[in-house]
Amino acid sequence: ADRFAGGCPVVTVDDLAAAPSRSPRAAGRQPLAAALAESTCCVIYTSGSTGKPKGVRLSHGSVADFSRHVADAYQIDPASRVLSFAQLVFDVSAFDLWTTLMAGGTVVLAGEEERASVEALQRLLKHRGVTVAELPPSLMPLLNPDDLPGLRLVSVGGDAPPGPLVDAWATDRREFWNGYGPTETAVAVTLMHCKPPSGGKV
Length: 202
Known about the structure:
The strands form three sheets. Strands 5-6-7-8 form a four-stranded mixed sheet, with helices on one face. By secondary structure, the chain is an alpha/beta fold. The chain is built from six helices and eight strands, in the order αββαβαβααββαββ.
């Protein structure tokens, strides 16, 4: 907390946990400002696929609206265990983290080892009981969907998934979804529940 001295309001989580009845004001600190729908939630830097790379301001309202709708579509609830695979600088991290937490689910964090090793990622998905995962379509052919019995929904974005990917991953017990949207729209604006046979394309 000492690193943030100099006019920045600080709420120390340890202080609140030790004395939950004490508000930031009672602890001698300023209260947190209300988060308005139009207030900036975060800034995500785009890859530049829709033009020049730039920082995009996402509002609390747009992130909350996206999270509410995708949680409803994917049926994310307190029993869900959602993989957090995307780097925090990528817009999909809003789905991984905020959608899961808003729905009361459990976030299963992937580390650098899981991002660098297909075998480590496969182990994490299986042994941590991941039920929902957003994965890059280019990575999925390297994983074994038959060895992930607890995974009830997989979602892809960023690139259009090839039809054979849908045919390999979508089953009567696992849904396959494709989401699309530029970062400027808070992760995704369209969702498609993909079902086999794909006919070779999505």
